[in-house]
Amino acid sequence: MEQETYVIKFSIYAAVDGGLDGLARAIHVVRKAPVQFHDMAVIDSGKTKEITLRVSGKKKDIDWLAKKLEKVVEVLEVKVQAMPTEVSLMILHQ
Amino acid sequence: MHVADVLLESMEREGLLTVFGIPGSANLGLYEKIPDHKVNVILMRHEQGAAHAADAFGRVKRNVPGVAFATSGPGATNLVTGLANAYMDSAPMIAITGQVPMAVMGRDAFQETDVVGVTMPITKHSFLVRDPEHITWAIRAAKVISITNRPGPVLVDIPRDFWKVDVDFYWPSDEELLREWIPGYDPNPPKPSPDLIMKAAKIVVQAENPVILAGGGVWWSGATPEVLKLAEVLMAPIVTTLMGKNAIPADHPLYLGHAGMHGRPEANYALYNADVVIAIGTRFSDRTVGNFEEFKKGKKIIHIDIDKSEVGKNIEPDVGIVGDAREAVKMLREYIVDALNFKRDMEIPLIKKAKEFGEQAWEVLLRERGRGMKPWKVLKIVREEMPRDSIVTTGVGGHQMWAALHYPVYKPGTYLTSGGLGTMGYGFPAAIGAKAAAPDKPVLDIDGDGSFLMTSQNLATVKQYNLNVGVLIFDNGSLQLIRQWQDLFFGHRRVGENLAYLPDFVKLANSFGIEGVRPESYDEMRKAIRRVAQGEALVIDYIVDPDIMVLPMIAPGKVIAPENIILTPEQAAGIVV
Predict the structure, then answer these.
(1) Which CATH number goes with the domain that contains B201?
(2) Where is the Thiamine pyrophosphate enzyme central domain positioned along the sequence (chain B) (predicted)?
């Protein structure tokens, strides 16, 4: 299957502004990526925010998106995880 | 200490002493304090020009970003094109904008714009300073981010009610800055992987026709000597991107010119026919290779770039090496020479073939065509008269492509052009910025009539600050490349390309107190260029026949294959884009 669904987890360090600018910057990166966006969750943990994205696309495009996210100054760490095929298919059908 | 003083003191400490800008109500509190500091402010006549001048200043200095000041609202939004331009070409600059007071922010106050929000996708980073105590941190971070790794523009937005707030001056250490403010940012370039260097070296030594493709990153990295040494070990040709033209001395015997849509035929021939391409500091722009899939066929790609998101973005390499170009190329050469004991004595056969192809193409391209002085002959005069280390900037359009084709760059760092964004109006304010960065060097802006007109109001800045730059205007009364595309690919339907009612550029210059000339012979042109070479501010109105098309050309979307190179307008018949 060419299109697969992935979870991208990353954290944003909010030095001074509550982290919204960093989050907005990351969203700008995601919206230009050649992937299909499904949903996003943001959890506040003090000075950092933990973000979980679900996106579908080709593996190389997902990897590219992860690299672009790593370039955002506030972003500390990016992890990419493939979703199990059954879940992936379910999300894509939805 | 007032915040305005803190900001200016911080700029002094960071060596940010040259500013291009325009005052407005949101930064008057800052301007008020300028006379008490060493920061030198140059009044531009439009903020777009301030941004381009700051961008060019950073391109020339490389480790000192240019700075642009603007007020809130329209002042800030007028910077946007310049920021995008710097972002696309990886030029280090810092924009410092005044913002409406914190108390009214978000309420559509007079001259309020969320410039941090507006510029997020076109800056490397941006800060809205929300606490007067944070000024030193923001300026320190802005400089570090703008010049390290892949350089780029950074914007710092400061509410105007901060300027007169008293704060203690606190100068964070490098460690504090990185730990407390930007822990996600590593200013050190990634180390190239020795395993990947080894893999790449083995591919390179087995190649029969390797070609080096040098991009703008070679200049930013200071990798020019290493790239030349690698080429000499391999006896392989160097071709460049448009931005890479600024990085490789054109008189090096292995240099074949720049490749791409309006690339030199010999360069396109070599790049297309290579069996291995060693691409250094380039993003493989569509304007360089034409068609990614077609270009990749039959060749191996080794891609070296400091930005890991560029590796594999447009073309999937066989080996992708993330790291600083200078270090990676040095490691690659050392492995080739020391570990693999490889050094070629003779030029690879592709060079001869490429040069033969080029000679045939140029025989067609340089045939007499059109009326008046020919662009390639005028540019030959420019090169002969301007000193080797003089700086040339360009606008965007036909003249830019003529200059790319016929103005050889001998000294890296002396050719500033808007490559990624393609911003008309860049050349003239960029020349002003370059002159401020290198006051001892002659500076010439090679511009178009349409392009120059977009930022020509900065003639006043040239006069006011004795920033003597020359302008050579390719004046053909039209938007040349638009006209050419319409003629070649859009059924000859010329719409919106006719620059009717252009000003008399000589009189326009005179009205700003600057001399202008309109040469009518090559001799007169030479005399005019010589005046610029001697440091005079001069506008040269060069009348060009609009029917002289900028050729060679490859139609957009077509790969840079020799058979796709258009040498005459007739060859473009039937091409659909």
Answers:
(1) 3.40.50.1220
(2) 198-332
Which chain B residues are closer than 8 Å to A64 by Cβ?
A: 309, 312-313
Let me know how long chain B is. Answer: 577
Q: Calculate Rg over the CA atoms of chain B.
A: 24
- Where does residue A89 fall: left (phi above 0), alpha (psi -120 to 50 degrees), or beta otherwise? alpha
Task: Tell me the CATH number at B399.
Answer: 3.40.50.970
Q: What is the pLDDT of residues B186-245, one digit of tens each?
A: 999 999 999 999 999 999 999 999 999 999 999 999 999 999 999 999 999 999 999 999
Torsion of Cα atoms, A67 then A73 then A79 then A84, to 10°: -70
State the pairing for strand pair B276-280/B470-475: unpaired
Residues of chain B found within 8 Å of residue A25, distances taken between Cβ atoms: 120
Amino acid at B427: G
CB B568 within 8 A of CB B551: yes
How does pLDDT run across B158-177, given as a tens digit for each residue? Answer: 999 999 999 999 999 999 99
What is the CATH number for A30? 3.30.70.260
Same domain, B319 and B234: yes
Interval B301-321 mean pLDDT: 96
DSSP state of B220: H
> Using an 8 Å Cβ cutoff, are B420 and B84 in contact?
no
Is there a domain that residue B577 lies in? Answer: no
DSSP string, A36-63: EEEEEEEEEETTEEEEEEEEEE-HHHHH
Same domain, B342 and B428: no
Omega into B552 within 30° of 0, i.e. cis? yes
Tally C-beta pairs within 8 A across A and B.
49
- How many CB atoms are closer than 10 A to CB B179? 11
Average pLDDT score over chain B: 97
In terms of domains, do B28 and B51 share one?
yes
Tally of structural domains, chain B: 3
DSSP letters along B312-374, please? TTSS--SEEEES-HHHHHHHHHHIIIIIS----SS--HHHHHHHHHHHHHHHHHTS--SSSS-
Phi, psi torsion values for B101, nearest 5 degrees: -60, 150
A17, A28, A64 ranked by CB distance to B309: nearest: A64
Q: Which residue of B has its CA nearest to A31?
A: B121
Structural domain for A40, as ranges? 4-93
Question: Within a domain: residue B576?
Answer: no
Contact yes or no for A76 and B184 at CB 8 A: yes
Token readout for B432 is 């002003």
Cβ neighbours of B180 in A, within 8 Å = 15
Measured between CA atoms, how close is B185 to chain A, in angstroms? Answer: 5
Give domain status of residue B212, yes or no.
yes
β pairing state of B300-305 and B319-322: parallel
Whether the predicted interface score ipTM is above 0.85:
yes
Model confidence at B252, in pLDDT bands (50, 70, 90)?
A: very high
What is the rounded average pLDDT of the residues B41-65? 98
- Residue B511 structural domain: 370-547
Return the SS3 of B296: helix
Predicted pLDDT at B573:
83
Chain B residues near residue A72 by CB distance under 8 angstroms: 184
Please tell me the distance in Å from B127's CA to the nearest CA on chain A.
8
pLDDT tens, A51-71? 999 999 999 999 999 999 999
Say if the Cβ atoms of A21 and B180 lie within 8 Å: no
